[in-house]
Fold these 3 entries.
Entry 1:
Amino acid sequence: MKSSLYYYQQLRLIKYIYSSKTSQQSIKYLIPRQRNCLAYFSSWMGPPAEDKDIRHFRRIAKELNKEFIDTNMTIALVGKPNVGKSSMFNRLVGKRLSLVDKTPGMTRDRLISNDAILGNYRFTVMDTAGLEGVHSKEPKLDEVMLTSESVASSSAVEYKEEDVYRYVYTRMEQQSKQAVLEADVIFFMVDVKDGITKVDKEIAQWLLRTKSPEFIILIANKCDTKASEDNISMVYTLGLGEPVQVSVEQMKGFYELYSRLEQLIPNVLRKPLPKGPSDEDYEQQQMEEIVQRLNEEEMARQEQHSIALHSLDENAVDEETTKETKESQSNDNVILQEEDIRVAIVGRPNVGKSTLINRLIDEDRLITGAVQGITRDAIPVEWIHRENRFILTDTAGIRKRSAIQVRMERFSMETSLKTIRKSHVVCVVLDGSQHLTQQDARIIGFAMDAGKPLIVIANKWDLVDPSWAQTQLEKLSTQLHSMLPDLKGSSIFTLSAIDRTDAAVLDTIGNAIQEAFQKWNKNIPTSQLTEWLQTLVSFRPPPAMSSSKKKPKLAYLTQVDTRPPQFVLFGATELPNHYMRFLINGLRNEFDLHGVPIRLRLKGRTDRNS
């Protein structure tokens, strides 16, 4: 295993090269070993991040993203519960996408990321649920019908809660098996602290029957104590060869894992990867030549332009900061392209969010069940609708904070709220067979406060008596608009997620999402806004405020931002709340901004040119 000293020695030379050359010029001076070294630090695999030099090297490494090799392969993380699969997933992705906790069974649905990096290789990684043994028994048909219907129907046959959970864990096992079948390479993880258990042996035997051994990398995690080192000999009994000893928590052993994967990739891709010079003598000679040349250039530059160098260094820092910002923005679009629309599916527990996504994509992708709290992570799923690519994110049910007593549920709820903030459009799923609750209004209010356009879907409509359907819809609309006036004029889509005859409704929902996204990005010319304002003011002028006793003279209205639409009204510093509401409703009706939050600010005449 490479020591930290090795990387520091390499990086000191790299830092010297970068201090003597501009960023683009210095890249071509780096040999493959140094490029890999920067890639190593760019993906959370180096010494502690608190070291200022390491932060500097990671910023430099971001410029080398174009040098990373896209392998187009998929890696599945497999193992029993609580062996560190989700932690490994987060390390490879470089973000905390998967929930991590000491409690076994945190992960249930497959979590997939197309932007995992190990060394200078980019690939797709799948986090899977922990396997508690590999069983050949499939869930019974009545259990399948139970889980599908119970999400949307309270009239289903009553089953014991343990039977439902048994079904859920069977579905988790099926999803993990499906991930293994779809993956090119398997990272089979074991916990050396606990030693090798019967479950580990069952999983290993099943993997050997399913995949070729050359495509299975055995990872012995939690190798950070003396007891772990004593147990490492037990890992060899699994029959999968020499294990890679890592500690995901302490970021140890990733270079060995990188080396093992590098040897495996040509067999997966069926072609050799591009390689640079690897002869150590040649590299050493090249390093010495570079250092000597840079030393001479640096000395000459310091003698002639010492003052100019200082200003250039400051400009270089500014350029590097700007480049870092742009690069971080581009990194966010590795998976999500410009035309992709991120849609958050949110709501109270057990209203049918997962079932709705399964129905939209026409695939049994997410685990559903008759009990609350099955979904824990935020699971992104791709949906292609009329040549538009949507990223639907299933979220955990959001309850009142006072009702949350389990730590895992609190983590899940925070993840759901974070998903809302990162989304483009929010679909709030209601239980159409019940009245609108205060918690439904809170969830919708949170999305509106975050500035997201809304689609309201009333699920479980099959439970509503057809003779009372129209009355129930009007009742829901009245409650919704009275609790949340900003949603006046918005439609409520009614459907039953388990009813496959509602294809037209699903198509309408897709069109509504696209339309809401366009409204959210709408930009209205100032001339149209001012013309509309003058007509509105002539019809209903603003009232005088008690503080000034003079009627304000509204000059003009302009839009200053989108996502959500933001407007500035010139000519008044304050207006009554009811008149502000009148203006916002007028904007929404005139320019078709229903379901989209509107921000309106006031600015006096004296501040017009400020």
Entry 2:
Amino acid sequence: MRQCKGWSGVLLVLFGVIAVGSEAQKLPTRDEGLFQMQIRDKSLFHDSSVIPDGAEISGYLFRDTPKRYYFVVEEDNTPLSVTVTPCDAPLEWKLTLQELPEEASGEASGEPEPLDQQKQQVTVDEGTELFTYKGNDVESYVATSTPSGLYQLELLSTEKDSNFKVYATTTPESDQPYPELPYDPRVDVTALGRTTVTLAWKPTPTGSLMGQPVQYCVVINKEHNFKSMCAAEAKMSTDDAFMLAPKPGRDFSPFDFVHFGFVSSDNGFGKDRGLTSNKISRAYTAKLKVSDIQKVCIGNKNIFTVSDLKPDTQYYFDVFAVNSATNTSTAYVGTFARTKEEARQKTVELKDGKVSDVFIKRKGSKFLRFAPVSSHQRVTLFVHTCLDAVQVQVRRDGKLLLSQNVEGVRQFQLRGKPKAKYLIRLRGSRKGASTLKVLATTRPSSKQPFPSLPEDTRIKAFDKLRTCSSVTVAWLGTQDRNKYCIYRKEVAENYGEEQRRREQNQCAGPETRRKSEKVLCKYFHSPNLQKAVTTETITGLEAGKSYQLDVYVVGHSGHSVKYQSKLVKTRKYC
């Protein structure tokens, strides 16, 4: 090997190109002690065009604006490895060996050349092109023997502003910065459920054989697989990368200040680039859309179950082996899978005029089918929710007829059709399990097992008729003659609507009440619906006490429906 001559001249030219008027910084070499000191000081390489030997650097590209980095190989026949990792968008990059003229060496005359001539000497000769690549894969240039010289890496993003990472080393055999993939780098799906997917992969030999600290990170999303960890993290980020505050020491141009939200001066710099400050502000202050993506780091386990997924949904899964010491990572070959569909519910057949008791799990669903055997003009659907509200959907031969939330008692009149079939979907509450009674019939209302109800099932209390020992209430009836029973129960002062809802099963009939709570039962109806109202005065109450009043209407077959409960309070002083 021969020592490259006159590297001080090379460094002068290099820094004349990239750092006019700045204090020259010492190029890192693979002297181990010096390298360890330099790599601990991250600010040494910040915003520098010099790539340190054996360390990964991060950078940012503005669209259609190339960026150049330099790397020095000091001796002939030196191995060289350069790895570029695109993050946000595909990149174009090329690696060239710069041929410096002999005049740049230390054997030149002692007269220093003008700085403009030094720039020209480096920039006029484009050098020898060694490698080019265009795409979004993690790609490397590897050579077992390279000549000494100055290597230039040029990167360009033509799609959009983008992040990237670069790693270069002259000792690739000993460095091995990126965790090594096993002989089979695929991620396998070993179990599949409606809301879970179990993944497995072969461990990286970097951790087991080389003793380096390695952990695995799993990325889950609904769009596509990722080829690098930084690509996944860029997708997860909600802030624009360029808005991070730079460290001190960088020279800003007016163009840079515009990107960071400052007003540019009227020096025509932005116009030269075909950009205006207003356009840049709009383009770069918008927040990125947050994707439905999740990253989970799980230590050194190579089996992981992803949970809380949606049924019948396709997901993409990527696994990354991460060197915990250097934070460098390697992507396994990702996979994708579609979760299983929800188990098809068994459809319950409803019989004409028969009451069906239905139980629905929390957030569950039930399907009911009603197929009248005879021709009909209308169908009466009776839904009585016992606990929480449920969502009711009815389709006739596939056509949606109604979709409503039902709480308490509701009757629906559906227009009939010859040989029509009705599918009823009941969806439970998020609060808890639901119990309800359902009746579908084509028969006249007088033959229904459930009593007919008015549209308004509230109980009205008359405040002016309230005394220390009695209250007067009223409720609506129908044109059908039904039996009404009224019950009373003393409750505590702080007894409220929420407590009443929790304790009360709306489907429980008067047979569940104590005899001492019964006030009276009576029959009532009116041919004129405008006059179908009845009143009742409840006596024998104590002064200043609160009571819950319930009215049950009982049908001919014994089925009962309770009106909405009413809380009343007697006067304390009379």
Entry 3:
Amino acid sequence: MLPKIDPTNQKACLSLLEDVTTNVKQIQDSVLEAILSRNAQTEYLRGFLNGQLDKESFKKNVPVVTYEDIRSYIDRIANGEPSDLICDRPISVLLASSGTSGGVPKLIPLTTEDLEQRKSFTSLSTLLIYKHIQGLNEGKSLMFYFVTRESETTSGLMVRTMLTSFLRSYKPTNSSFWDQTHISPLAISTCADTTQSMYCQLLCGLVDRENVARLGAAFASSFLKVIKFLEDHWPELCSNIRTGRVSDWITDAECVSGISKFLTAPNPELAGLIEQECSKTSWEAIVTRLWPKAKCIEAIVTGSMAQYVPLLEFYSGGLPVISRSYATSECFIGFNFNPLCKPCDVSYTIIPSMGYFEFLEVEKDHQESSHDLANPVVVDLVDVKVGHDYEPVLTTFSGLYRYRVGDVLRVTGFYNNAPHFRILGRQKVVLSIDMDKTSEEDLLKAVTNAKLLLEPHDLMLMDFTSRVDLTSFPGHYVLYWELGSKVKNAKLEPDPNVLEECCYTIEESLDAVYRKGRKNDKSIGPLEIKVVKPGAFDELMNLFLSRGSSVSQYKTPRSVTNEEALKILEANVVSKFLSQKTPTWELHKLYSTR
């Protein structure tokens, strides 16, 4: 495990990172030994190991599992049975993951000790950013964080998101470190009313705009939602600044108290400046126009978040977009040791002290884990090969053993002896007709190619999702697109020829099995794009938030089957376009990709 660190001692922290990325094998062996020696007598491990604690027995006898395989153990703990079913330390919280099982968030066990490890991990990753970007310590962070509704299991165990657990771990009576580094008071960030919290965080950031050194949110999509909120509410925010009085609908006591420290007097000059920028024809570079001393934007832009990069770049005004770490509810995994790289080049170096890491080999391009085969190929962290694709398998201090995460990673190199990976996407089929199985990664690549056709027309793809339509034969894929304009208040009337060409480009970008089904077998119909009204994806998000999702963790689902969600999308459709051409397919190309 990571030792306790002093985040003010940058030299010692950076030296620690060099050590843990150099002594990878020794650290991994000691981590596994520590986990097994602690937890050998848990009900779960006892059933597989029978007291054998060596690495060979662990790898031979403990199965590689998914959430569904261990769900019964977590449900039993949630219902009041002791934590030692899976872990020798008390489970202090169940984390509500952004991933789901049966339509509800997965519940991931976490101990207090592991939470402290993750806080140390976060401090170290922050230091890496400060190392690469000069002047960050001259200002503060305007990071848009939001808590979500908390619940309790029948046994009284708290159910929270990872970010909520982080924020709640800072006590209001001892928040001096937070106040020294963040613009918004902790009490505003932990307000349970997301709308009031977002409004007040923006108001704090605008009033103290000259002191903002960096901005960000957990995910790229979260940051863009803040920008959209600002676009809708800037006149009211300017009015508050002009009068020195917050709007009457801000009623949360902590928000009112927190914002009173910023709105100390009317400031018509600042209100006029912000109004001047926000009322311009285009919102391009709005971030640097409103926060001129900001040096970077921080948000996860890898995996499914990659599609938001063009929008971030449009609003950012050339600021570097930093994706600093790879962290899941199950485990905090790796750092980006080159935070100033382009978003498309982000790789994360595994920190071997955070857990025991194994990897299932994945067949490149087809995203089939070798775990699906008769003899799964599972390799240790030190044995992965550059250029190969893998799915991480985690063993943690909080009671997960050989747990499949579901991400697909590609090894891009090594930092010292620790491999670094690029996140390709989820190992998840999102669309399937006949013999075709389109993964999330394949769909994202195809949409990325197609949306390039929008740029010459000053259009931007704001968000998208998809579904399979089997109401006619043959069935076909439907994509819901929400479009935006680079020009403020411009009418969104896309050229039908452009959208039809987008349909064709997506089809051409999908794999040979799909194209064979379209052209040769005629078992798949022409792909369809349905353009929805602006705000449709906000309605979709609100549906899922009403069911317990968090704004900070919410990710637009890349395929939708939920009837309520489909009703929202269909009610907002304003135009429809079908692919007018058949994609290419040649027999020899099909087999050359296998």
